[in-house]
Write a structure and sequence with these properties.
This protein has about 425 residues and is mostly beta strands. Among the domains are: about 55 residues, no CATH class; about 40 residues, no CATH class; about 130 residues, Jelly Rolls, CATH 2.60.120. It has four helices and 22 strands. A hairpin with a 2-residue loop joins strand 2 and strand 3. Helix 1 packs antiparallel against helix 2. It is rod-shaped and about 150 Å long.
Length: about 425
């Protein structure tokens, strides 16, 4: 029975279409719009065909296309109208300048071309958030059936020089592949914020990288900051066998306020409490103190032979910036004011003709042991007003009065360091 119904419908439609094409317009319209001759005259087995003709009876074909040639049509209050903002040209659907294709029931997403201002294609929205912060406001989705992309398949690409990367002159500028690898053909400029990699290594360069350069403005301390233990001995290697730091003003070595440990050959460190520079010479740990000391024994032979006792010459080749005395002390073998030392700590120019003391004798401080001992730990209280002794000077003692007892003696200690200026 079904086959019979289908055959009847096919014959009827073919008959109507053939008849319609051969009849004059007035008669064709009657066949197109008037199916009363078929109403209720078909058997119940042919109801499908009857309903088809009843549907034809309800259709109305009328109206003239609106607008100009190639313009898209739309319903304008029940009448055809054309829009010059959207036209068909050859194989292209064209939106004219500053028009947007809107999405969403609120039309709050738009894609449009801005020629008057930016001369660019812009995807824009008035929305400020998605349903959740982990839901992107703009997505490009591929492999939506989760069948698995081809390994290293590029998903998104930006380039120039052609329509796409199939063109001979195409230059890839930016691309993202199926597992998140990003390829950038130019510089990456970070105008704010950090580059965070999470709990994974950050690798810069590969086996073909010639050099890595860090450029900073150089206006502050710590321009490039690395966390503790971020660079180990295995990560530092020199193919020339030497590291040249000649272009820097200073180099900070490991230091601490207290004892340091250098237990491998070539290691160096600074003890800022004991003011020592420490290094390991391959067999032992060695230290040099930044503070130095002159010790002189003053006996009757000194004051009986000459009233001036030579202590040390600070030659300009060894002490190019002179010295700074930090403190001094005199200890007598007896604490007897009657045998006190009455002397002066002095400096003068180096000798040019053998006469001692030399020219420009200058008082540094008075060495007066009225109680047998004497000292000064703050050289700002000295007669000189500081402990600074210029280079090319001779340090000596000028004994003003011989002690009353020749069996007495005195020990003079002077602490100093070499400055760098």
């Amino acid at each position: 029975m079904m086959k019979k119904q289908i055959l009847i419908i096919a014959i009827l439609f073919i008959s109507v279409k053939v008849g319609y094409s051969d009849l004059p317009p007035s008669r064709a319209k009657q066949i197109r719009t008037d199916t009363s001759n078929f109403d209720n005259n078909l058997s119940s087995a042919d109801n499908t065909a009857q309903k088809a003709f009843e549907t034809l009876d309800e259709l109305t074909f009328s109206g003239t296309p609106g607008g100009n040639d190639t313009e898209f049509q739309y319903n304008n209050s029940g009448a055809f109208a054309g829009t010059s903002d959207m036209i068909w040209t050859a194989n292209n659907v064209t939106f004219i300048d500053d028009q947007r294709l809107r999405f969403g029931s609120d039309s709050d997403w738009g894609l449009g071309y801005e020629e008057n201002d930016e001369d660019s294609l812009t995807f824009s929205t008035e929305k400020t958030a998605s349903t959740g912060t982990d839901n992107a406001m703009l997505n490009i989705a591929v492999d939506i059936l989760n069948q698995g992309c081809t390994a290293n398949q590029e998903i998104f690409e930006v380039g120039k020089g052609g329509i796409d990367d199939g063109d001979e002159n195409w230059i890839e500028l930016f691309a993202v592949d199926e597992d998140g690898d990003v390829s950038v053909g130019g510089d990456i400029t970070i105008s704010g914020g950090n580059i965070n990699t999470g709990n994974i290594p950050l690798v810069v360069g590969d086996a073909t990288t010639d050099s890595i350069t860090f450029s900073v403005d150089g206006t502050g301390d710590g321009e490039i900051v690395l966390p503790n233990d971020s660079v180990g001995s295995d990560e530092i290697n020199s193919t020339t066998g030497a590291y040249d730091f000649g272009g820097v003003i200073s180099l900070e070595v490991p230091n601490t306020a207290g004892d340091v440990t250098c237990d491998a050959a070539g290691e160096v460190a600074v003890d800022t409490t004991q003011k020592q520079f420490v290094w390991h010479d391959g067999t032992r740990e060695v230290a040099i103190s930044s503070d130095r000391k002159i010790t002189a024994l003053i006996t009757s032979g000194d004051w009986d032979l000459d009233s001036d006792k030579w202590l040390h010459e600070f030659d300009s080749t060894v002490y190019p910036d002179g010295i700074v005395i930090t403190k001094w002390a005199v200890d007598a073998n007896v604490a007897d004011p009657s045998v006190e030392l009455d002397a002066n700590l002095m400096y003068c120019d180096t000798l040019s003709n053998g006469a001692f003391p030399g020219a420009n004798a200058t008082l540094i401080d008075v060495l007066d042991t009225t109680t047998g001992n004497s000292s000064e730990s703050d050289m700002s209280n000295s007669d000189l007003g500081s402990g600074t002794i210029p280079t090319g000077k001779i340090l000596y003692i000028d004994i003003d009065v011989d002690p009353a007892i020749d069996t007495n003696f005195f020990v003079l200690q002077i602490w100093f360091y070499q400055p760098e200026s």
